[in-house]
Write a structure and sequence with these properties.
The protein is an alpha+beta fold. It is built from 5 helices and 9 strands; from the N terminus they run αββββαβββααββα.
């Protein structure tokens, strides 16, 4: 499968260079995006597909954490990846945790603080929240997001 991904799943982006496509039909057509859920392009190192220092992954990461990804939202309270499965402009705590887990220690700490700031003082992660108004959210608690957040905190502060 890796051979097919390397052959058909890489797109030459005019700004970012070679990046992984979210989807391809193998005939030269590509869907360039990423979704907040896991598995995702952002989660590739977390899932063991590549190293987070890998150049192709870093180019892909730069793409998906930019306005070129149609599900990357920038707001007054937060920026991050959302999903076609929740309202437009809603960022997922899962994606913020994954951004921290696949980034630098400094970025991980930033994501922890951002998640705490956007959890509506409830002590629980939501599915998605409005980039401009975190008190607007889907799911009052989301076990998967809470679990990834716990792993992010553990990896950031307790694993060397």
């Amino acid at each position: 499968m890796n051979k097919q991904v390397q052959c058909y799943g890489i797109y030459l982006h005019p700004q970012f260079g070679k990046i992984y496509a979210y989807e391809t039909d193998g005939f030269g057509n590509y869907c360039l995006m990423d979704d907040a859920n896991v598995p995702s392009l952002l989660s590739m190192p977390y899932l063991g597909y590549c190293k987070k220092e890998d150049t192709l992954y870093q180019h892909t990461r730069s793409f998906i954490l930019s306005h070129h990804n149609p599900y990357y939202y920038q707001g007054t309270c937060a920026s991050g990846i959302g999903s076609p499965h929740t309202p437009k402009n809603y960022i997922w705590h899962i994606a913020l945790s994954m951004q921290g887990l696949t980034g630098t220690k400094e970025e991980a700490k930033k994501m922890i603080n951002l998640i705490l700031e956007t959890s509506n003082n409830e002590g629980l992660c939501h599915e998605g929240f409005n980039k401009d108004e975190p008190s607007e959210y889907t799911r009052s608690w989301f076990a998967w997001a809470n679990s990834l957040f716990a792993e992010l905190v553990y990896q950031t502060y307790f694993v060397k």
